[in-house]
Amino acid sequence: MELHASDEAANQLASQRLAGEMRAELARQKRTASDLAAALGITPHTVGRRLNGDVPFNMIELATACRWLGIDLSEFVGRVSTDAKALAS
């Protein structure tokens, strides 16, 4: 299955929004990217690429991060969806 340019752009935007919400949650909890990297078992460089939206979080990373942060995965994703709807209005 081929992705069209609009699909790729939508995926990139979704990745950036998830990354932004993850950065915001880390800030709310006064946790660092290095803390997240340790929780995920990946390098700080790799988590940095996830947090700036260059590389999307995979589902295992996202679920692990949410569990570590003490938030429900569906709540986290819902925040991003709600933000996207608000921006579109």
Quick summary:
This protein is mainly α and 89 residues long.
Walk me through the structure.
- It comes from Microbacterium aurantiacum.
- InterPro entries: Cro/C1-type_HTH, Lambda_DNA-bd_dom_sf.
- This is Helix-turn-helix domain-containing protein.
- Residues 26-79 form the HTH cro/C1-type domain.
- This protein has one domain (11-80): 434 Repressor (Amino-terminal Domain), CATH 1.10.260.40.
- It is 75% helix and 0% strand.
- The protein has helices at residues 5-28, 33-40, 44-51, 59-69, 73-88.
- The longest helix is centred in the N-terminal third of the chain and has 24 residues, at 5-28.
What is this structure's SSE topology?
Elements: H1 5-28, H2 33-40, H3 44-51, H4 59-69, H5 73-88
Keywords:
89 residues; mainly alpha; 434 Repressor (Amino-terminal Domain); 75% helix; globular; Helix-turn-helix domain-containing protein; Lambda_DNA-bd_dom_sf; Cro/C1-type_HTH
Instruction: Note the run of SSEs as H and E.
Output: HHHHH
Oligomeric nature of the chains:
single chain
Helical amount among residues, as a percent range? over 70%
Mean pLDDT value: 88
Estimated share of beta-strand residues: under 5%
For the secondary structure, the number of strands is 0
CATH hierarchy: architecture: Orthogonal Bundle
State the secondary-structure class.
mainly alpha
CATH topology: 434 Repressor (Amino-terminal Domain)
- Total helices: the number is 5
Q: Gyration radius, to the nearest Å?
A: 13 Å
Q: Tell me the overall shape.
A: globular
Q: Can you tell me the CATH class?
A: Mainly Alpha
Query: Number of folding domains?
Result: 1
CATH superfamily: lambda repressor-like DNA-binding domains
The termini sit apart by 31 Å
For the report, how would you describe the main beta sheet?
none
Pfam families: HTH_26
InterPro entries: Cro/C1-type_HTH, Lambda_DNA-bd_dom_sf
Domain HTH cro/C1-type: 26-79
Protein name: Helix-turn-helix domain-containing protein
